[in-house]
Design goal:
By secondary structure, this protein is mainly alpha-helical. The protein is 71% helix and 1% strand. A two-stranded antiparallel ribbon has the order 1-2. The longest helix has 32 residues.
């Protein structure tokens, strides 16, 4: 039995009962209040509520996808530096099956959100040709299939890691890599399909072959920001202070910086290809986002989602400054929401930016539900994969 001592380097890998209960109770309270608010929103303004809910659902689904991608990458590369943060990654990934329940309001809102869900779509010369694919029945089937596939891979990878806690066997390390190889391919294919259905078909006359990567890149960035925030939150509570050190935060900062650049690259590439092609059926998406106050939203995204974090996080010292890193983790958590808001809301508010109290209510409702499932996993589970043979190497990790 490897690494059965639950402490290492003066760190306790198990949460205290009181600490766990306090956070659980806070999440339950937030969930209760926010879900009541969401219910009131659906009663008062059904269409606005569906759009607000869609943005919140997309936010947390994309983050859980990002977590699964990173768990798979760690297994495929045999990464040692990330072992002490991997259980937190796995625990975010473990929440993926919640999407099977939380997607129900999206299924029920197709008539309110998607043009192809209207009777008039059958008379549209372009849309009528897409209705064999874009219809309620296949929308639900595809949504359930992709969420079921993600749930299968997340459950298998998490269970392998937990089994290794008990035995420390290398067989589990190899098993995780074997699941991760096809998993990455499945993730990109199904992630693209989901983004086409849930976001791109809001503008059903338009398409972009880069949209799937754009969606996944945003989710990976949102995930990395949330992971850093969780690590720093645990550190503040006195956990993992020696297991996740400045060296590990430095690498997490590198990832936050790299994903900021990658998101900007994909976002700009999509824009450039559409601008260069200058085809009416492609331009329509950006034209809709240049109307009224939406025209000011894009420069805001460029500055706040890319330029400011790019130049601030570039220096080595910034990535090793935990206060600065924590600030920009919170910053990117907000920016990921702004990015999805900009993708979805111009369909509802065509004349310009409009904010509703239902937006934060839906975000808190969906987020607290995912948060409860995430937190429940630590009732009796170590905060790090204590059976991983590379744990000692990770604890001794030092950046070059």
């Amino acid at each position: 039995m490897a690494h059965h001592d639950q402490t290492h380097a003066a760190d306790n890998y198990l949460l205290s009962d009181a600490g766990w209960t306090q956070v659980r109770n806070s999440l339950v309270f937030i969930a209760l209040v926010s879900w009541i608010a969401v219910g009131a929103g659906f009663a008062l303004n059904r269409q606005q509520a569906h759009f607000s809910y869609l943005v919140a659902f997309l936010y947390f689904v994309s983050v859980t996808l990002g977590s699964m991608f990173y768990v798979m990458v760690q297994h495929l590369t045999g990464s040692a530096w990330s072992v002490t943060v991997r259980r937190l990654m796995e625990s975010i990934m473990r929440t993926i099956p919640v999407g099977l329940l939380l997607i129900v309001p999206v299924f029920l809102g197709t008539h309110y959100m998607y043009e192809w869900g209207h009777a008039s779509a059958a008379h549209d010369p372009i849309l009528s040709k897409k209705l064999n694919f874009l219809n309620d029945q296949w929308f639900v089937i595809r949504g359930l299939i992709v969420l079921a596939l993600w749930s299968l891979f997340s459950w298998r990878l998490y269970s392998i890691s937990r089994q290794q806690d008990e035995s420390g066997s290398l067989l589990y390390t190899r098993a995780a890599a074997k699941w991760s190889a096809p998993g990455v391919l499945v993730l990109f294919l199904t992630g693209s399909l989901a983004s086409f259905d849930w976001i791109m078909s809001l503008d059903p006359h338009w398409w972009s072959t880069m949209f799937g990567v754009y969606f996944i890149a945003g989710g990976a960035l949102g995930f990395m920001a949330i992971l850093i925030a969780i690590c720093l939150g645990l550190r503040r509570a006195g956990y993992l202070t020696n297991s996740i050190r400045e060296e590990h935060y430095h690498d997490l900062g590198k990832w936050l910086f790299a994903l900021t650049v990658f998101w900007a690259y994909i976002s700009f590439s999509q824009y450039m290809l559409i601008w260069y092609g200058n085809l009416p059926e492609e331009n329509v998406w950006f034209q809709r986002r240049l109307v009224g106050s939406w025209a000011n939203f894009r420069p805001l995204l460029i500055a706040c989602h890319f330029i400011i974090p790019f130049f601030t996080l570039m220096p080595r010292a910034s990535k090793r400054n935990l206060k600065l890193l924590g600030f920009f983790a919170g910053w990117m958590i907000v920016m990921h929401y702004c990015d999805l808001f900009w993708q979805v809301m111009p369909v509802l508010h065509a004349k310009g930016f409009a904010f509703s109290w239902m937006d934060p209510a839906a975000w808190l409702a969906v987020g607290s539900t995912y948060g409860l499932v995430f937190w429940s996993g630590f009732r009796r589970t170590p905060l790090v994969p204590v059976g991983d043979p590379r744990l000692e190497q990770c604890l001794a990790f030092h950046n070059a």
